[in-house]
Automatic annotation (TrEMBL):
Region annotated Disordered, chain positions: 1-57
GO cellular component: protein phosphatase type 1 complex
MF GO annotations: glycogen binding; protein phosphatase 1 binding
Cited PROSITE patterns: CBM21
A GO BP entry: regulation of glycogen biosynthetic process
Organism: Sinocyclocheilus grahami (Dianchi golden-line fish)
Record Pfam families: CBM_21 (PF03370)
Domain CBM21 per the UniProt entry, residue ranges: 130-241
Biased composition annotated in UniProt, kind: Basic and acidic residues: 1-10
InterPro entries: CBM21_dom, CBM21_dom_sf, PP1_regulatory_subunit_3
The gene coding this protein: LOC107593910
This protein's name: Protein phosphatase 1 regulatory subunit 3D-like
Length: 261
């Protein structure tokens, strides 16, 4: 009984609440915290997003791009002066002419270029061919023209086993030139003439060269025993000019031609 009285007679002890933590003041020019300063997410979003009025202004802004027929950006723009005609590729002119023919409901024609020799007779068919061959040791005998280029046949006097025949040609009036080799074909004997070797050469003609008025010039060089002999058509060179002829297209083939283009 005495123990219970003693417990009931004790006074309650007051509990002191913890003191609030005080943040130390940063010293001048130095931060005591190792963490980076925090920024509000809402503040960053408001800085990155445009306002409604600015969004309306940006939506009404128009942009213009200049592209070519393939959708690629133009790299340069050329302004043509009066009297300066621009170069129009052949295939573009062909399409324009084809469209004009169809629009006018006339018969459609295709203009095809070809090379034509400026000498009327083949050199090998001339009466003085054998005499010229004896005199200059090398002569052009024949020229055959076809779409990818020309083929030439050359006769040379067989002076030695080792020999070389080449053709020098130009499309630019000799402002620039190229050279190609001729290849041996056979040996032959010309009636009332010397023993000869036949050579054959091929001159490729790029499509962009074939425009009306273009001229191909060439001369033949024969190298044997350390000497050179030339056949340049008496100093005038052998010349071929580019011409064109119109090929009519049947009505039933017009749609196929347009589809092919």
């Amino acid at each position: 009984m005495s123990h219970s009285k003693t417990d009931s007679g004790k006074r309650p002890v007051k509990i002191r609440p913890p003191s609030p933590k005080t943040t130390p003041r940063p010293t001048a020019g130095r931060s005591l915290s190792c963490e980076p300063p925090t920024k509000s997410i809402i503040q960053r979003r408001t800085q990155s997003l445009p306002s409604p009025s600015e969004r309306r202004r940006l939506s009404h802004r128009a942009s213009v791009r200049f592209v070519d027929s393939l959708g690629l950006d133009l790299e340069s723009v050329k302004v043509f002066k009066s009297g300066e005609d621009p170069f129009v590729p052949e295939h573009v002119l062909f399409r324009l002419l084809t469209s004009a023919e169809l629009a006018s409901s006339k018969g459609m024609e295709i203009s095809l270029p070809y090379l034509k020799p400026m000498f009327s007779v083949q050199p090998g068919d001339c009466s003085n061919f054998t005499e010229r061959l004896r005199c200059q040791q090398v002569c052009l005998e024949r020229v055959l023209c076809y779409e990818p280029g020309i083929i030439g046949i050359v006769q040379v006097v067989n002076l030695a086993f080792e020999k070389e025949v080449s053709v020098r040609y130009s499309f630019t009036n000799w402002k620039s030139c190229s050279e190609t080799k001729a290849y041996w074909v056979a040996s032959k004997s010309i009636s009332n003439g010397p023993c000869c070797d036949t050579f054959r050469f091929h001159l490729p003609v790029p499509p962009y060269i074939l425009h009306p008025g273009a001229v191909l010039e060439f001369a033949i060089c024969y190298k044997v025993m350390g000497m050179q002999f030339w056949d340049n058509n008496g100093g005038q060179n052998y010349k071929l000019t580019c011409q064109s002829y119109n090929l009519p297209v049947p009505k039933e083939c017009e749609d196929s031609v347009i589809h092919f283009i």
